[in-house]
Amino acid sequence: NDMGDRDVLTEIVRQFNYCKELLQLEEQSQLALWNYQLGIQVKSAGLVEQALQFFKASRALLPMNHWHMMRGESLLIYTYLGECEFLVGEYKDSTQHIQEALEHAKTVLEKLMIYKLMSFLYMEEDEEATTVVESGFLALELCNMKISREPTKLHVAKEALLLKWELQNKSDTVLLELPPLTNKEIDVLIQ
């Protein structure tokens, strides 16, 4: 039973967390990943504060050179940590961790995922619209999409005409039968 296995794993990880100082570096790295995995599971159940504790433990267990040794895992840990911190009101720590993840993101897709998270978080917190829009513009620029930050009526009219031109002679049925997007970067950007 998955619930029982998760409860056992949770208890084992908590016990290891109590004695983490006694673990070898490799064991601490593995424990960091287990804390991360439990944080994901708990967060998906809506228990953000408990997830935050697992993500904090995970980050604390990462080796000193984690951005070189475990970059991908560190990126995920910092991103989820920042998200949970934001959701519980720890805004300063959240901003610091998300920014650090963004600084170590290498691919366009990794950066887009972080900008997407930032946009969602800013919208949740009723931040000024300019903050959310700025995140969107930075994401668009990553994909080499040059959109004016202060479009004129002429810009809007030009884009409307280009769209109308592209869509001419295409029925709703034809548009609905188009294959789904396969470019993950564009998919994240649209979200």
Brief characterization of the structure:
With 191 residues, this protein is an all-alpha fold. It has helices at 2-18, 25-44, 48-61, 66-69, 71-87, 91-104, 108-124, 129-142, 153-167, 172-176, 184-190.
Q: Which residues sit in consecutive blocks of at least 5 with pLDDT less than 50?
A: none
Q: List the helices and strands in order.
A: HHHHHHHHHHH
Strand content: under 5%
Rg, nearest Å? 21 Å
Q: What is the residue-mean pLDDT, rounded to a whole number?
A: 82
How many helices? The count is 11
Beta strand count = 0
Main beta-sheet strand count, sense and barrel state: none
Helix content: over 70%
This entry's quaternary arrangement is single chain
Q: Report, as a whole number of angstroms, the end-to-end distance.
A: 35 Å
Structural class: mainly alpha
The global form is elongated
3D architecture notes:
This protein has 191 residues and is mostly helical. It has helices at 2-18, 25-44, 48-61, 66-69, 71-87, 91-104, 108-124, 129-142, 153-167, 172-176, 184-190.
Secondary structure elements and their pairing?
Layout: H1 2-18, H2 25-44, H3 48-61, H4 66-69, H5 71-87, H6 91-104, H7 108-124, H8 129-142, H9 153-167, H10 172-176, H11 184-190
Which key terms come to mind for this protein?
191 residues, mainly alpha, 11 helices, 0% strand
